[in-house]
Target: ABC transporter ATP-binding protein
Amino acid sequence: MHFAGNHKYYVYASCILAAISAFIALVPFYDMWRIIKEVLEVRPNFNEAIHIKSYGWHAVLFALLAMVFYIAALMCSHKAAFRVQATMRTKMMEHIMKLPLGYVESQGSGKIRKIVMESSATTETFLAHNVPDKVVSKATPIGLLIMMAIFDWRLGLMSLIPAIIAFVLMFTAMMGPKMAEDMKQYQNALETMSSEAVEYVRGVPVVKTFGQTIFSFKRFKEAIDEYEKWTLDYTKSMMKPMVCFTTFANGIFAALIIAAYLFAGNTITDQFILNLFFYILITSILTTTLMKVAYAGESQMLVEDALNRMNSIMNVQPLPESKQIQVPSDASIDLENVSFTYQDASTKAIDNLSMHIKAGEHIALVGPSGGGKTTVASLISRFWDVNEGSIKIGHVDVKDIEQKELMNQVSYVFQDSRLLKMSILENIRMSRPEASDEEVIQALKDAQCQDIIDKFPDGVHTVIGSKGVYVSGGESQRLSIARAFLKNAPILILDEATAFADPDNEVLVQKAFEKLAKDKTVVMIAHRLSAITNADCIYVLENGHIVESGKHEELLETKGVYEHMWHQYNQSVKWKVQKGDEE
Model:
């Protein structure tokens, strides 16, 4: 209701209309009882049953009227449900846009997409269908109890016994805390599988580059196996309770047959037969109501889990904005005694690290995987806030720089660039929306993208991802660099920007970088050590610490970690695939 706004009144109207529909739907059963009653009273002179037609039309009228009220209830509930779903998605996306990029990256786009799209869709289904059905399932038994008490309370009580047993089975075995926990585990398994599927598909270029086979599929396969195992175990555990519930819910008429033998005695009166027929007719509604309660209960647990998942995102706080906003004086970067630990991690990713980068200086971060290179770059861009110490840009703490201004100060080129399904022109313009077409085209030229533009008939207006329009990983990276050219931020962070480029594209990317990096402060993360030999300073990171720093030649003379990495790199460059026993 928090998301519904004024549309919550549609929900209330839906509940009222659904309740009216439930009560009206019972009237035709009373008319059917009156028809049977008149037939029994006039037999064998059936031509004296003059009210049958009027009773029949009365039943049809009220059946149609019940349908009209129920359809009206569904129209109101759907109108509210669609609005609530749209508002939820809008509010979540607005909130996600304010969250640190580090959080979004750590959660994975597959998981966040599932929560935003599928969890909100669960609430739409619940509001649109299950809320009216829940009202009907509550209103119908009230009307039934009243009618059962009027005709023959003994038969009414007997018909309720299987319903009560089915109800107890439903709440003990198929609902309650255990079922809620099972539903949560089911959603977790589904969420993990969805996230792994997205990440696996996105990782296909890496798989092809390094010739991976079944090992690349391992995590995705494990997620599928876990989902399969959980689903099969859960289904088997629910088999007996569901069979028992269905049997008792649909076996109410059997209790009435037993009641007929017990209560009829030696003399079977017309009134008893009449009441028995009424209960046999009316119990079909009771069965349908029980099934609606069961499905509504399951849907409620699903929607509660969906709301909890949405709240898990909405409860994450954006990075705090300082009240003392300052503007950096230059493009220098200072890290002073910085420590940082990822959530749920047992060790620090960065531990008491200090680094001073002058404006216009080009530095490189190298070291073994897990050393903290990408973490340092992410902290400079304030994807996260440091736990201890401070990071300053232009002698101003990044926490005191307005978020928009900080983004204007830093350009970040990732190793896996993203292009959206829009024209090349608009893809590049994203980095500076107010830029003119001429400025975008110039940025594309500076990023060595002219050959990409020339190969498409529509040039810069070509829509990426449309039929037959695709670009390679290296071409995608050059287009990403064009964004950085257009943005023209004074600080440039390159995170493995040439990792998956083929040789031809790497040459063009390096040319683009040389022009882009001019007069800028550059922080480069690279495993290809040949790309950083001209850096003003190379920092070697290991286990969150700077273990070595200096120029390329200086580090080679120290015979330390960098010298060993350089030796290993040169050995890998010389590797060749040879025939037979040739070396």
Q: What stands out?
A: Residues 576-583 have pLDDT under 50 and may be disordered. Residues 256 and 408 are 78 Å apart (CA to CA). The chain has two domains: 5-314, 333-574.
